[in-house]
Amino acid sequence: MLIKKIAVIALSVALALGMVAVPAKADITASNLSRVAGRFVATQYSWHGLVVSGNTATGAVTITLGPSQVSLPDGRQMNPFGPASNLLTPISLDLGANNETVTPTAVSPTPCPTTGQFSAVAVCVNFTGTFNFTHGTNTVVSSGSGGLQEAIWDAYFNNGGMVVVDSTWNGTNAMLVAAVPVENVSIEDDRTGGNQVWEAQGGTAIMAAPAVLTNSSAGFGVNGANFTGGAYTGSNTYITCITYVDIYGQESPCSATFTVATSGVATTDQIGYTAPAAATGAVGYKIYITLNGGSYVSAYNVPLVTQPTVQGVYPVSNGVCTLTKVETTTPACAVANTTYGQVGSGAVVSALTLNTSQIEPELTIASSTTIYVPNPGARTVYTYAPGSHIGYPGVPSAMPPFTITTAAATTVPNVLGTINIPPGFMNYIGRTIEVCGYSTMSSSTDTIEAIQFQWDANGQNTAGKGVVIGYTNMTATGILNISFCEDFQTSVQGVTATAGSINSPGGYIAGSAAALGVSGAGANTLVGTVGSLNLADAARINVIYLHTTGTDGSGMTLQGLTVKVVN
Length: 567
Prior knowledge:
The protein is mainly beta. It has helices at residues 2-16, 148-156, 173-178, and strands at residues 35-36, 39-41, 48-53, 59-66, 70-71, 77-78, 91-93, 100-102, 106-111, 123-131, 140-143, 161-165, 185-189, 196-202, 237-246, 258-261, 271-273, 282-289, 300-301, 333-334, 347-349, 382-387, 398-399, 414-421, 432-440, 448-457, 467-475, 481-492, 500-512, 519-524, 529-533, 539-547, 557-565.
């Protein structure tokens, strides 16, 4: 016992004098994990590969890289160019003076050579881009974004999440802005010890309408062929158009009017569509068809999914077309898009449209007291930008200016802007959002102004008219600038087309004119819960301007629209 005590005392003295080496304590702040609790760490995606077949000339050429499957530091396997080896991921090549970063214009899978270091079953990629230097066989290749774009793709294919960049990431703000965005992935910037969130924000350019549809000489339908099994029989006429859908599920204006005349032949009773041409920023398209003999302004949405039957479950395709997977805010048929490695899908419409569905969006088309024409906000470009809070996947937290409306007539509504909402977004009791905006016009003598909010979804509408869920108004003369906010809270959830209810707990409206001292203020005038809403399917919120006295000498522009998830 005495010997043991002496040994303990001796060890204590040795430790105090530094005579015994103590194993270093592990740094618990360091990790090689690429994915942790829904966060994808960009630094861990900085992979390395080789040039299998290089370029002997500069300019726009194709080289071969391999292998397409790489191991991350934590052992996870991933393809930097996506599961199908066709995504446009930038790469960095070579070292020293010949080092360069190249963003591809095309990427496609190809078998690796059967000789050398690659196995017979390995997959390589053909990479087409513009090169400033030549790069021979076995040149080292790595991520051109410090792993950022690869982490974004990995998050995208794993149901979304947050990509994290910290002080170990060797990238720049320019890389964050240049990254290809997707709707369900945000970026958490921890490089300086703070917590700045970057969200995808739309540019100022509004997406143009698709080209006018054309009839196929092969048979009945728009760009279609002979189809059977539908409801378009008899000698009737229908007007149809399509919209593009951007990566955030926002729609373009509908294409120009096109009339389909059915022949009455029993074997030609469907309408077929080929996918429209690729367009900058477009990943999907929606179809609108009138009732028999209807007018273009009353073209109704063709549902592309079935009405959900289970709370919280995304609606399934009804077979009209192959839906895009790039965005899930607005169910849409796929359009060819090389940036996201997507091919286009044709569509076949068998069922007649219903006047309880959404109508087609248009620019500078006047609404009426019965038909509220949506003012679309699809954008050609989205880029990651610093935000003030974490957004909700598929709901842009801030929209740039919308197209100016026509001058509103007295008592006639005008839709200032429309924002598309994902299926089930509001279908939870207590879910609360705040919708705010600022709108301007250059000439007006009206005295009573109002901003309305309309819930617009399939199955609940009335012949081109959604359901008003919010209403703010004020009294002032010659108002040229209007600021507004309104809160909306779900009080009843449900899965049928008329099962949901939304309450507006409060809101405000304020206005001013060019002259100092001319101003007005008002408040929410719609009291109580609004029911019979479709909260389970995709929807829109239309922001509507209305004045009931005086005149407007010009249209109004919605300068900014924000949607904030409060609860």
